[in-house]
């Protein structure tokens, strides 16, 4: 996070609180979010895109009621993609009209909950869903504002599992073959739905802005088809172009993502020019960053437990450093070959650096937090390691594998810390057990 520094004793401080203090007060593994950093990234996004439309924080990256309150007070909107995320947002008092609901298989109950809560819009992903929501809204005597999710056929250069806009995947209506235009027709024909926008999301952890630009052009290309079939007046109701999330962050110091301001202006320019060519008013642009806000604002603290040198073929050794968490709190290394920066945070060492592999405590050899990194040779049990940029998709994808209690999540700000989500306990596990006797 911005403002992280070492104090005079060489201990890393986050938001003015030393990692020693955090580990003593809350134990490890521990997620720490720097509130000021999180808020400043909200503000950066808002400053970049606010003039052209609005910013939705993608809550799948990380959500708690506290985070929803930060998002609310920074003036952003919120994306949810499940009934669970919606429930947390509403519990936090987040205004329903600033919430959008996503998902490729929303249940009847999730759609009904969204309509009943009065969410701002619902992003539709299949023909079945168009019929389903039309019926649910009709039963309640309301007209639901909806977006149609388009698959613009853009190959985002990122990991296959998090790339979403090529044709052969589950999300959205393809532009090719007129599938997306069919969806627009179906929504126009549905009495209880109002088509207010088009949506596209090309993937995640993307560094090149040309993919976003191409997607924007293609989504507007669909607007051209809509104008041709339904005329300018009818098309004007589609006043929102939601271009999704996906802006990359730097996990390693060597990576430099494009500045959000540059992306915002590039997209606005395309949208302005191409909508004018269709005689349409400039649509509102929405974006949905998750990682770009939460990712760099959070870190994970682990304690080193054991250290082992394993002989490799050819006479070299690999140093395995085991920490007290692992794939249950960060599955991204195993799942996406993700890379992270790690450092010894509880002291300064002048020992020479050696190549290490940081592994977790779970019962499988794939349980790797960091495949290769440099750590001081005198690293010892009890030292605290800090893994950076774990604020997105780590806690939210955490598991209880091996009955590991989920880590606590704390926030730091101006020298103070407080618990956002407490650590799970064995009692939490037991509370789910239904004793059949
Ligand atoms: N909007 C939609 C419709 C999405 O599907 C996503 C992410 C976002 C916005 C936010 O994208 P972001 O700005 O955070 O890149 N678990 C993976 C990431 C999966 C992203 C899924 N959708 C990871 O850990 O990298």
TrEMBL record:
Q: Which residues carry this modification: N6-(pyridoxal phosphate)lysine?
A: 60
Q: Which of UniProt's keywords are assigned here?
A: Amino-acid biosynthesis, Decarboxylase, Lyase, Lysine biosynthesis, Pyridoxal phosphate
One Pfam family assigned to this protein is Orn_DAP_Arg_deC
Q: Which cofactor does it need?
A: pyridoxal 5'-phosphate
What sequence ranges are listed for the domain Orn/DAP/Arg decarboxylase 2 N-terminal?
36-294
Q: Which reaction(s) does its UniProt entry say it catalyses?
A: meso-2,6-diaminopimelate + H(+) = L-lysine + CO2
Can you tell me which residues the record assigns to a coiled coil? none
Q: Which GO terms describe its molecular function?
A: diaminopimelate decarboxylase activity; pyridoxal phosphate binding
InterPro entries the record matches: Ala_racemase/Decarboxylase_C, DAP_deCOOHase_LysA, De-COase2_C, De-COase2_CS, De-COase2_N, De-COase2_pyr-phos_BS, Orn/DAP/Arg_de-COase, PLP-binding_barrel
User: Self-association or partners: how does it assemble?
Assistant: Homodimer.
Give the family from UniProt. Belongs to the Orn/Lys/Arg decarboxylase class-II family. LysA subfamily.
Q: What is the role of this chain?
A: Specifically catalyzes the decarboxylation of meso-diaminopimelate (meso-DAP) to L-lysine.
Q: Which HAMAP family match?
A: LysA (MF_02120)
Tell me the protein's name.
Answer: Diaminopimelate decarboxylase
């Amino acid at each position: 996070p911005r403002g992280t520094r070492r104090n005079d004793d060489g201990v890393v401080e986050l938001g003015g609180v030393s990692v020693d203090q955090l580990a003593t007060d809350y134990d490890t593994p521990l997620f720490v979010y720097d509130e000021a950093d999180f808020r400043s990234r909200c503000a950066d996004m808002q400053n970049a895109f606010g003039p052209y439309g609005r910013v939705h924080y993608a809550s799948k990256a990380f959500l708690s009621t506290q985070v929803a309150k930060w998002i609310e007070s920074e003036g952003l909107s919120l994306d949810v993609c499940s009934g669970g995320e919606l429930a947390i947002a509403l519990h936090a008092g987040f205004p329903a009209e600033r919430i959008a609901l996503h998902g490729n298989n929303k249940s009847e109950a999730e759609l009904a909950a969204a309509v009943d809560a009065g969410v701002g819009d619902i992003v539709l992903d299949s023909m079945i869903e168009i019929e389903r929501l039309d019926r649910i809204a009709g039963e309640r005597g309301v007209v639901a504002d909806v977006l149609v999710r388009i698959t613009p056929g853009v190959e985002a250069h990122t990991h296959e599992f998090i790339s979403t806009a090529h044709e052969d995947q589950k999300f959205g209506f393809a532009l090719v073959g007129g599938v997306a235009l069919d969806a627009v027709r179906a929504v126009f024909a549905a009495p209880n739905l109002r088509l207010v926008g088009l949506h596209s999301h090309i993937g995640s952890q993307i560094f090149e802005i040309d993919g976003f630009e191409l997607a924007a052009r293609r989504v507007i290309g669909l607007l051209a088809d809509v104008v041709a079939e339904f005329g300018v007046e009818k098309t004007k109701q589609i006043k929102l172009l939601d271009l999704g999330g996906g802006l990359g962050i730097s996990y390693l110091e060597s990576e430099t993502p494009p500045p959000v301001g540059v992306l915002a202006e590039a997209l606005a320019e395309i949208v302005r020019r191409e909508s004018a060519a269709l005689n349409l008013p400039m649509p509102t642009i929405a974006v949905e960053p998750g990682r770009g806000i939460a990712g760099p604002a959070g870190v994970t603290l682990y304690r080193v437990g054991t250290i082992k040198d394993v002989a490799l073929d050819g006479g070299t050794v690999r140093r395995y450093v085991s920490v007290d968490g692992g794939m249950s709190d960060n599955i991204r290394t195993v799942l996406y070959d993700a890379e992270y920066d790690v450092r010894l945070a509880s002291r300064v060492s002048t020992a020479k650096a050696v190549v290490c592999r940081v592994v977790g405590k779970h019962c499988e050899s794939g349980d790797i937090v960091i495949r290769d990194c440099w750590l001081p040779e005198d690293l010892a049990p009890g030292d605290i390691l800090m893994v950076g940029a774990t604020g997105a998709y780590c806690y939210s994808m955490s598991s209880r594998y091996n009955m590991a209690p989920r880590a606590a999540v704390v926030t730091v700000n101006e020298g103070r810390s407080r618990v956002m989500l407490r650590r799970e306990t064995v009692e939490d596990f037991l509370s789910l057990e239904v004793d059949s006797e």
